Amino acid sequence: NDSEQEDSEVRKLTAKIEQEKQQQQQQPRPPSTHSSHQTALKKTMILSSDELKRLNLKLGKNKVEFSVTTSIQGTTTVDANIFLFDHMTKFVISDIDGTITKSDVLGHIIPLVGGDWSHDGIAEFFNAIQENGYQFIYLSARAIGQSQITRNFLKNVKQYDRELPIGPLLISPDTLMTALYREVIEKKPEYFKIECLKNIASLFPAKNPFYAGFGNRINLIHKNSFLISR
């Protein structure tokens, strides 16, 4: 009768559906192109090895530019330098304020009004060191907002037709207020500097890349001595 025929058709259809399900489960699934969750992006100031390779850097100084474009302000460009050195480079570290300049505070102010507050003979002395096969690194606890001013200062130190040797400028990624608090209130700018030097040293596991250091604070001198003699 009709009822038995309907039941028979339902059983056949059910069996067919179950068979198709089993076949689908046995077939390998293609990789999904849609992630079940959004990828989290994280800001970082450290490039990976592959990212650095894609920059096609040459030995020595490489200029890079960062640009941001907005509908209101247009395009703003900030330039920086990336230095590439081989594993045999011998580094000499120099502080800036109170070392290249005659004092910490006036070393910030006087160059802004066109004056020279650097130690006499510093350019000739540093060039003599460079000519003996050493590479300078300039290290300062100044804030990142003072980077251009600091670079201009180093570039404009000229004594008896001698300029300071070209080298990386490493400064604190903190704000101006944080840097001033660490320098003036805590009086411990060496905390940033020591961590910075440790990061550089970690890139040279086979040897100590530091051969000398110049600074005007006893804490930094002791720390530099430890890093150089380790």
TrEMBL record:
Transmembrane region(s): none
GO molecular function, one term: phosphatidate phosphatase activity
Basic and acidic residues composition-biased segments: 8-21
LNS2/PITP domain residues: 91-230
Disordered: annotated span: 1-40
Pfam families to which the protein is assigned, alphabetical: LNS2
SUPFAM superfamilies reported in the protein's UniProt record: HAD-like
SMART domains cross-referenced by the UniProt entry: LNS2
InterPro entries in the record: HAD-like_sf, HAD_sf, LIPIN, LNS2, LNS2/PITP
Compositionally biased residues, Low complexity: 22-39
Protein name: LNS2/PITP domain-containing protein
